[in-house]
Specification:
CATH architecture: 3-Layer(aba) Sandwich
Order of helices and strands: EEHEHEHEEEEHHEHHEHHEEEHH
Strand content: 25-35%
Radius of gyration: 18 Å
Number of helices: 11
Distance between the termini: 20 Å
Number of domains: 1
Strand order of the largest sheet: 5-4-1-8-9-10-11-12-13
Largest sheet: 9 strands, mixed
Helix content: 25-40%
Structural class: alpha/beta
Length: 289
């Protein structure tokens, strides 16, 4: 069960926009959002998956909900409200990536929208939900209501962590079993990177993952640290690679797979996203989204 963000991603070439006027460039529209991405990859790995979130009453919501259903994700806990679905604008220029987010309906998700009890083998709470008002209380309610063998929080964004504060983050996530961070986010929380950051996070959580992009990842589980290299890939767009990692590693651990096996599968999923123009795998019956 993934609690948090359901978005529409719009990807464009920023270099073309810089010229001004009417220009031609590649523009791709895809379903996305941290929680939706993770759920889709968990489902692709063989797990049953669902999302708790909010969308608007617009065409974007129709597209995202239909795409999630095609990928086998339960959308019964996604609320539709009057307004717009969250949208992420991803701009690429000279190998750099910039993102502009309009949270839309995601910012309206309230504790009353959550089930009284959230039951699953694994539950992932979005850091975007936790680290931004007015939805911090909703994320905390999700952690409190969860009855799961594995309760995880992903750290979302290092600027958000820096604003929220590492001490406060550790305090409010005390109910979580796991934390999932990229190298920069882990540094904001611990002042360390890589394996050392994983160990520091492991002092507070039973499970900790640090995602290092082309350098692979490390995973702490009950005092044991394992590392895995990234699969060789020609990077196309890394957007959503960390979410794919999260969905696959949590699904694998929830099914009882060992840390090394779970980490390897998660790294392969992240590499598939980074080397593809789509953040989602091919849907059953064909089609990325």
């Amino acid at each position: 069960m993934c609690v948090g963000d359901v978005m529409l991603d719009v990807r464009a070439d920023a270099g073309a926009l810089a010229h001004g006027g009417d220009v031609h460039g590649r523009v791709v529209i895809q379903p996305g959002g941290t929680s939706a991405n993770a759920a889709v990859w968990a489902a692709a790995s063989g797990a049953t998956a669902a999302v708790i979130g909010a969308v608007g009453d617009d065409v974007a919501a129709d597209l995202v909900l239909a795409a999630l259903a095609r990928h086998g994700v339960d959308t019964g806990h996604i609320r539709r409200e009057h307004g717009t679905t969250g949208t992420m604008l991803v701009l690429h220029e000279a190998g750099e990536r910039s993102m502009v987010a309009d949270r839309g309906a995601n910012a309206t998700l309230e504790p009353g929208d959550l089930p009284g009890v959230i039951e699953a083998s694994a539950v992932l709470v979005s850091g975007y939900l936790l680290l931004q008002e007015p939805t911090t209380a909703t994320a905390l309610a999700a952690l409190e209501r969860t009855r799961a063998g594995l309760v995880a929080v992903e750290t979302a964004s290092w600027p958000l962590i820096d604003t929220f504060g590492a001490p406060r983050f550790f305090e409010v996530t005390a109910l979580a079993d796991a934390v999932l961070a990229n190298d920069r986010e882990a540094f904001s929380l611990t002042g360390r990177q890589g394996v050392e950051a994983c160990r520091r996070l492991g002092e507070r959580y039973r499970i900790a993952a640090v995602k290092r992009g082309a350098e692979g990842a490390c995973l702490w589980v009950d005092g044991e640290v394992v590392e895995a290299p990234s699969s060789p890939v020609t990077e196309v767009d890394p957007t959503g690679a960390g979410d794919a990692f999260d969905g696959v590693v949590l699904a694998a651990l929830a099914r009882g797979q060992g840390p090394a096996e779970a980490l390897d599968a998660a790294c392969r999923a992240g590499a598939r996203v980074a080397g593809s123009p789509s953040a989602w795998p091919e849907a059953p019956g064909g089609g990325a989204a």
